[in-house]
Amino acid sequence: MSQNPEHAPDADASAPPQVTLLFAHGGGFCKQIWDPIIHQLQDSPLLHGKATEYLAFDFPFHGANRDESVTPAVMFDTPTSPRVTHPGNAWLTWGPAAVLEQVQALRRMQDENKLPRTKLIGVGHSMGAASLWNTEAQFPGTFDGLSYRFFAAFDRASLAAYLASLYCGKPLLLTEDEFARVQCSVVLLGGSRSRLFAHPYFAKMVAALPQLYSLAEPIAGASHAMVLEKPNESAAEVVAALEKMLIV
Predict the structure, then answer these.
(1) pLDDT tens-digit map of 20-54
(2) Does the CA dihedral 85-88-91-93 come out positive or negative?
(3) Which residues contact 105 (CB under 8 A, 6 or more apart)?
(4) What is residue 95's predicted lDDT score, i.e. its pLDDT?
(5) Is the pLDDT of residue 100 over 90?
(6) Can you list the domains of the chain with their CATH numbers?
(7) Which letter, b or e, does each residue of 71-105 get, where b requires 16 or more Cβ atoms within 10 Å of its Cβ?
(8) 94 vs 91: CA distance, rounded Å
(9) Measured between alpha carbons, how far is 199 from 204 in angstroms, rounded to an integer?
């Protein structure tokens, strides 16, 4: 399990954590993008001095897991729309698998050391958010709460187009039944400058499943990359989401 060593405990080291926050980065980034946000969370009135664990990890083909052993192949089946094939395309498979691996390693460590199982909250950006969501849909009850950062800036069709263009792979399209399978609170957030933000679409989902989903106000002046543009505001929204989840 990859835990950033720069993140010092913000509570009595002898006290086992009560809550674990698992951070999943977006495509093309690495776990270190969460550092400023994690530092803000540690200093927040809600979490300061609380027994909280902060875990961030690198997805396959990202960060410390960068892998150039396979050469991408460019396909020209359609001359005006070349496609790239590479194992990195299969993010719908390795993304949730990487998330589940982190969760299983966490639970295994806790059980082997006879520690209480912490409440587990996932915080994800873009591909990371999609992977958290996909994991919870496949294995309901994995998380006690999810805060989807920036992925909420896409409606379903736009998200599919964005991810397909980025990875040249299959898009994530959860069905209505899969939306309803999650067993934890989910907070959705986007940036006000995102040209792909579709508040009406998510509002309908929130209206249909208010016990599961809530839609935060967009962060003013932020785009899809708000984790880099406005880390302080992003951290504040994470804290607001945690307050709603009553995790502390």
Answers:
(1) 999 999 888 899 999 999 999 999 999 987 899 99
(2) positive
(3) 1
(4) 94
(5) yes
(6) 19-245 (3.40.50.1820)
(7) eeeeeeeeeeeeeeebebbbbbebbbbbbbebbee
(8) 5
(9) 9
Taking only the tens place, the pLDDT of each residue in 216-237 is 877 787 766 777 777 888 888 8
Task: Name the residue type at position 97.
Answer: A
Other beta carbons less than 10 A from residue 123's beta carbon:
29
Taking the alpha carbons at both ends of the chain, their separation in whole angstroms is 24
The helix (run of H) or strand (run of E) holding residue 158 is: helix 156-167
By the 10 Å C-beta count (0-12 exposed, 13-18 middle, 19+ buried), 214 is classed as middle
Token pair of 85, please?
A: 């094939």
Structure tokens of 196? 């792909």
Residue 161 burial by CB count (10 A; 0-12/13-18/19+): exposed, middle or buried? middle
